[in-house]
Design goal:
387 residues; 15 helices; Rossmann fold; eight-stranded mixed sheet; alpha/beta
Length: 387
């Protein structure tokens, strides 16, 4: 909800409290910029955006247009103190789906909610499949992000039942082509530069395949991130329309590339090592992500290269972070070196290989459970709206 008029916001909350029609995920007391709103919508993925149309009509209508251009689109309900015909028409032209005004009685709210639910159901039936996006990043280079992202992608594609894409978004020092021992005439830079006109034909020329995984490699020469973040986001959105699973190999979590695409990831894995500088920077990064609006269920912490010789154990590190470690991955230098030499994934027979395969299987299993719950929830909402 974006509602600088706090009296209107209170009236809305009071009027809809009994019916429990809305769960307000975040209540903004000032109009954000279009860029700020776009980032929040991509992070939070709400069903509905509630916008105060009266306090600053121009700013409000701009936000309505921003939400309407989101992919998938966000349904917008305009809020105003009165049923002003001019305001209603302007908001609908800008892309609003519904309009509400005090006293927010049960009948008008129920009617608006029912219409939006029907639109949701229709869109769900017609919409193309949107693949899951998993991002791997770290607070500084050398944490093993590319190794983990590569082997995670290979494990996801291991049975050949899923189309999997791995993107190297490091424009300055991507090593995916080296790790997989593959070269290609095109790179992620070409995809970003042509983000507005990506189609299946162009995509087929840009990507290459190795070990059963489609790859979008980093550029051969360092390329400073001079292109707009919107282009990076468009590449990710197109990729998820073509693949069931997309894995992003990202540079530092503070990089322009990471900031551009992390809001689009279904889940982010923050990789750290047991060395003290890495632990210190990771603790700061967790706080940074939370300040940027990421909830704690949107990212997980992976502890990589844990050695038996380490003075600190995972539980000690969790106390340092005040954040749980989702997975501990062992140091396995020999297996990684042999895999890099051959340009293949770490073998299942190695300690690291076993842990990575189990980790990938667990993640895919959770995804299937979420789909089942979502399908059940949709059926329930349809029954409720019909009732």
């Amino acid at each position: 909800m974006v509602c600088p008029d706090r009296g209107l916001a209170q009236q809305f909350q009071t009027g809809t409290a009994r019916s429990q029609s809305f769960q307000v995920l975040e209540d903004l007391t000032a109009y954000p910029t279009a860029q700020q709103l776009d980032s929040k919508l991509r992070q939070m993925r709400p069903d509905v955006l509630l916008v105060d149309l009266g306090t600053n009509p121009d700013a409000a209508l701009g936000l309505v247009s921003t939400a309407g251009a989101a992919s998938p689109p966000i349904y917008v309900i305009g809020l105003n103190q009165t049923h002003d015909a001019g305001v209603i028409i302007q908001s609908l032209r800008a892309g609003a789906t519904e309009f509400l005004a005090p006293p927010f009685d049960h009948e008008s709210v129920h009617t608006a909610v029912t219409r939006i639910r029907k639109l949701q159901e229709s869109q769900t039936r017609q919409a193309p499949i949107r693949g899951k996006v998993f991002a791997f990043t770290a607070v500084k280079p050398g944490q093993g992000v590319t190794t983990l992202a590569s082997n995670f992608a290979a494990a996801l594609a291991d049975d050949g039942k899923r189309r999997v894409l791995l993107i190297d978004f490091d424009m300055l020092g991507g090593t995916l082509s080296f790790c997989w021992r593959v070269t290609h005439s095109y790179s992620v830079l070409d995809a970003v530069q042509h983000a507005e006109r990506l189609d299946e034909s162009l995509w087929g020329a840009i990507v290459t395949n190795r070990n059963g995984v489609d790859l979008l490699l980093g550029p051969d020469s360092p390329e400073p991130a001079s292109l707009s973040g919107e282009r990076y986001a468009r590449v990710v959105e197109f990729a998820r329309s073509q693949y069931e699973l997309v894995v992003l190999d990202l540079p530092c979590a503070y990089s322009a590339e990471a900031k551009a695409v992390l809001p689009d990831a279904d889940h982010t894995f923050l990789v750290c090592n047991p060395e003290l500088p890495s632990l210190h920077l990771t603790r700061r990064c967790i706080s940074h992500l939370e300040q940027d609006g990421f909830s704690r269920d949107q990212f997980s912490l992976l502890l990589n290269r844990l050695s038996r010789r380490g003075e600190l154990g995972p539980q000690d590190m969790e106390r340092v972070f005040n954040f749980p470690i989702a997975k501990v991955l062992p140091e396995d230098e020999g297996a990684v070196h042999r895999a890099l030499t051959a340009g293949k994934p770490v073998p299942d027979s190695s300690d690291l290989g076993r842990e990575l395969r189990a980790f990938a299987k667990d993640i895919v299993g959770k995804g299937r459970e979420e789909k089942k719950k979502a399908a059940a929830g949709l059926s329930l909402s349809a029954l409720l709206s019909q009732g």
